[in-house]
Structures are given as C-alpha cells and as structure tokens.
Sequence to fold (274 residues):
Amino acid sequence: MKRLGLTEYESRILLALLQSPPATAYEMAKKSGVPRPNAYSALEGLEARGAVMPVSEKPVRYAARPPREFFGQILAQTQTVYDSLAGRLETLAAPQGDHYVWTLEGAAEVQAKVAEMIAAAEREIWLKGDTPLLDRHADALREAATTRGVALMVILFGTNPGDYRFTEQCAVFVHEASGVRMGSADNLFTIAIDQTQMLTANDDGGIRAAHTQNRAVVKMALSLIRHDYYMAEIFGRFKGELDAVFGPHLSRLRTRSFTDEQIGSFREKTGLSD
Fold:
C-alpha cells in the first residue's frame, strides 16, 4: 500500500478498519497501534482518497470502501495520468535512437518486459529458454502464434517440444538434442522480436536482464539462437559420431574453454566425471 502512495499510518488504519468495520477513530487507533492524534490525520487522508467514509454520527464511525473498488480507482486514475504525461513528455524528448542497452532488475520487471515484447511481435519470435520460464509465457506465445500468425523459433532446455508447437509456423528444437543446459555460462533466457529488439536474462544472485534495439546486439542474439538451431539439427543426425570424436555433450571441446566454475557446473548437469 505504501508503494501506491499511502502512508504507514494510513495503511495500518485501513487494515484495522477492513477487519473491524465500522469503527471510531479511537477504536482504530487502539487496534492498529497508531497514536490517536495520528489516527485522525490518517483518517482524513484516507477519506480524501475515497478509501473510507463516515457512516454514522455521535460518535463518528467509519467504514472502508471495498478494496478492489478503491484500488481499481487508483489504477484508473494512474492510467489516465500515465497516458497524459507520457504523451506530453514524448513531445519534449530528443530522439534516443536504438543504441542504448537497458538493464532490468528482478523477476517481475524482466517477466513484464518479456510479456510486452511478445505482445508487440508482428512477424516472428525467436527464443531460447528452459521449460519453467517458457511455461510462464505459454499463453501469450500461443496467442501470438494462433491469433496473430507470428512464427516461433524455440531452442528448448527441456524435453517437451510439442508443448510449444502451436501452429505449423512454430519450430521447436531441443537444445543439442538433449535439452541439458551446459555449464554456468548459458543465459537463462534470450528472446528476439521481429529481428528488431532482444532481451537476454541471467540468474546470478538475482534475475537481471539487458534489453536493446541496437542492431549489432540484436544480430548477435539472433546468431546465438540460429547456431543453437544448427547444433540441434546436427546433434539429432550425427550424435553418435560427435560423441565419438568430441566426447558426450562436446565435453572435450567445452572443457578447453570453460572456467573451472563452468566445468564444475557442466559435470554436475551432465553427470560426466572428466
């Protein structure tokens, strides 16, 4: 509630009133632990916001507005302000171009940006990720593919590619024909939209992501996904020969370039001892 602009005392008074309506200022102060003088000012603030209203006199008792109704009003008001302010500021802002790389912090912010990108896709979505992450956006991906005709290219860390083949335009490939994530260097999630923007995320003590429309970086992300597609097809056809020459999961190649930490992670995930 504090993130929506309510003070601590207003939040505590509102919680007390929701649990024991109707109530006087004295009763709410006692129940919430808010000092009595502060309870009156908190009630005035809540009444001004439309969160509470007096329902009797002598003594004055208050009742809380239904939470969904009150916070829905805040949402509508905020959306109106956002639309107006964003439009006005855009007329003042200098063109930014496409060369910035924006950092996003936390799972909620990253997931919201991924959802926004999927909703904006018009032609194609290329992505690389594991099943739990893809499942969070499965409905949005399905809608993009089936309703808007967006083509999907998916490199899957997992074993259920059929779950994401929503239409004939959905090409899903199990990573290196095994679905195993290799080492600790692999990105948690990479997505590119219409070959114009990309986001890549990693979990290194907290979800962090980078988003950009920089053409060079977008091309790099597309190249990453494209080469994983090549590898999936090559492994599907020549796995026996590749294992014989380079070791299971290309272990002889990987351990030459991995750090000690990555080698440890690789061996843990693949079960290989050396």
